[in-house]
Amino acid sequence: MLNLRVNRILRRALIRFSPCSISNGEADDASFSTSSSKNPHGPEIQGDSSSQEDGHFGEFSQLGFRKSPALSATSVGDAEFGEIRNPRFNEIDELGEDEDDEEGSVTSGDECDDDFAVLKSVGKIPQSREDVGRFDVEEDESRHPLVREIGRLIGLRSSWNPKHEGQMRNLLRSLKPSQVCAVLRSQDDERVALKFFYWADRQWRYRHDPMVYYSMLEVLSKTKMCQGARRVLVLMKRRGIYRTPEAFLRVMVSYSRAGQLRDALKVLTLMQRAGVEPNLLICNTTIDVFVRANRLEKALRFLERMQVVGIVPNVVTYNCMIRGYCDLHRVEEAIELLDDMPSKGCLPDKVSYYTIMGYLCKEKRIVEVRDLMKKMAKEHGLVRDQVTYNTLIHMLTKHDHADEALWFLKDAEEKGFRIDKVGYSAIVHALCKEGRMSEAKDLINEMLSKGHCPPDVVTYTAVVNGFCRLGEVDKAKKLLQIMHTHGYKPNTVSYTALLNGLCRTGKSLEAREMMNMSEEQWWSPNSITYSVLMHGLRKEGKLSEACDVVREMVLKGFFPGPVEINLLLQSLCRDGRTHEARKFMEECLNKGCAINVVNFTTVIHGFCQNDELDAALSVLDDMYLINKHADVFTYTTLVDALGKKGRIAEATELMKKMLHKGIDPTPVTYRTVIHRYCQMEKVDDLVAILEKMILRQKCKTIYNQVIEKLCGLGKLEEADKLLGKVLRTASRSDAKTCYALMEGYLKIGVPLLAYKVACRMFNRNLIPDVKMCEKLSKRLVVEGAGNDNNMLLYFSLVSDNLQIPSEATRLSLR
What we know:
Blueprint: H1 2-17, H2 30-38, H3 50-57, H4 78-81, H5 145-155, H6 162-172, H7 177-185, H8 190-201, H9 210-221, H10 226-238, H11 245-257, H12 261-273, H13 280-292, H14 296-308, H15 315-327, H16 331-340, H17 350-362, H18 366-380, H19 386-398, H20 402-414, H21 421-433, H22 437-450, H23 457-469, H24 473-485, H25 492-504, H26 508-516, H27 527-539, H28 543-555, H29 562-574, H30 578-590, H31 597-609, H32 613-625, H33 632-644, H34 648-660, H35 667-679, H36 683-696, H37 702-712, H38 716-721, H39 723-726, H40 732-747, H41 751-763, H42 770-782, H43 789-801, H44 807-812
Helix pairs in contact: 1-3, 5-6, 5-7, 7-9, 9-10, 9-11, 10-11, 11-12, 11-13, 12-13, 13-14, 13-15, 14-15, 15-16, 15-17, 16-17, 17-18, 17-19, 19-20, 19-21, 20-21, 21-22, 21-23, 22-23, 23-24, 23-25, 24-25, 25-26, 25-27, 27-28, 29-30, 29-31, 30-31, 31-32, 31-33, 32-33, 33-34, 33-35, 34-36, 35-36, ...
């Protein structure tokens, strides 16, 4: 009886969730093929017959009882989502990368020449009949009531209940494809858009139109979410949706924005495997990726291959190459390419000239900029206009060339062009950065007198910042009052500049009071405002007030970065308030701030400086508990502190743990271990731990450092025992180590032992220094050991002739 009930429950579950196993173009059974043909948005189950149940019973294992494919035919990331067709919206999350997708994995060791292989397919792949133009959303559906309601429900996702999700599920089935695209594009957070895309894709009786995939790729191409873009591309293949070169292009752009240029180029390999013929647009993107990676030679070779297979470059192609030359400071070659463009059947545009002019402006080669402006108008008919002058002014002011920018400003006005307030403000900002406040004020008066471009808040804020940089805070305050009288309301940037000036002049408490009055003055502090105030209080030693500012900052939703937090932690530890620093770090961590291993190491170092080793070790334990992995600097700090206190056994265990975790020691780690172990006369333990460290990170002079340290500490006997390990290589560094040991013996008045070290050097074909030989021979005579004629002969051969004594001579001295 129980088995029958279980069987009935399982069959009902199968009927409810079975649409998960439907593939695009291939029905898993007869019932699904029938329903799919009737409903283009997805399968619909017809009835509840036992034959249907039996047909699905063999696929029950895919519902979670065994591992399903990483990407099913109708869903992406089943391992992530589970096999339930209608998952909760808040359960959907962006997937990680799947290395075993159907595109095939592309290893990092692939040669970049494989990127050129995609060009071989030009003209060999039959053109698809797919109407690519229909993927473009022509009508604006963003104001449609259904789209607005979907957006409202998505905005309530943090407080969703099943009723909200049911409403959105019903609305989804009423949306046209263009409206779904509008929902994706209307999201401020692209991650939410991708989550909605995945959620909708998992809904029963719904299937994305191809244009939705292209719209999702377009949204992701404007972000660094490259893995999500690649996932959508893979999902398109599994659904049998035709992929144009533009689809691969958008994935490549996303990788490029994320700085993963190698992975961006690997998209070409995926494109080749997919049998998609490249076009000019994706070729231009490829050249741009090569240029961004500073691989101009590869870009040139790709350009040549393009032309060989019949893809004619356009002005965008050559502009990418010109930018590549300029980025590598090869501006002469960029100008040559500019001159050759007409002969290649492609006339340059203003962007071609602006790119070169930007580099020349950076190098302050203004004469050449003027020549290019004349050439642009004379040879190619590109008349200089207001945009040209504005572009040059912004380029020059960006690189702090205010005088040259002023020259172009006057030249533009003489030719009848009107430079807008943005150009004027840029020059004012450049003048203020150079401390030329009187000239900046004259330029503002000129703006007021002309009337067509009166100064705005940005202009006045640049002057306020200039006064603050010079420490003239009172003039900055007066300027803020003048802004009010002229009808310009200072904004957050204006007040932040003033607060920065107050903090730089040691008036952080006044800045704090001003920020407390922000609501009355109708402005809101931002993260930069809080950071400025926090650093000002920190520099003045008001650490408690600085911590309070950080707490208030977090409360307002602004989270300081690890660097800012670390500066405050360092100040607290330097002031001896290490326990307060630890408490503050834990508080920041609990409130969601990004605390990294450097912050923990700072607190650990503070405890070590105060000889509170147990507290430092407890912080290390806290790191393990929250899955923050200590690095080599953390371990080195603790080992140094433990060695200083003579706790060598604990230091040894800590070093073993570090090596076991695969962390490579640094030269500082080696020096720290050597110094502390030699100081405690634990040479045997030192040698044992060094042998393990060498297995992780080679260090040829490690034993030389040990001997020299032992000599410096006067432990010559231990140093002499290790001399054999050093003389194995017989290098110059080994000779210096021997000199250190010989000097140590001479210093304590035992020249015979120094003489034996010299003999061992000769046996390894190392010639001692002449001064050392003379010094040693004199000491031997003084100590009464010079009666041995063999010794004197031995060292005279070296000091007089710089020759290695013969084998017979060396044997006679043994």
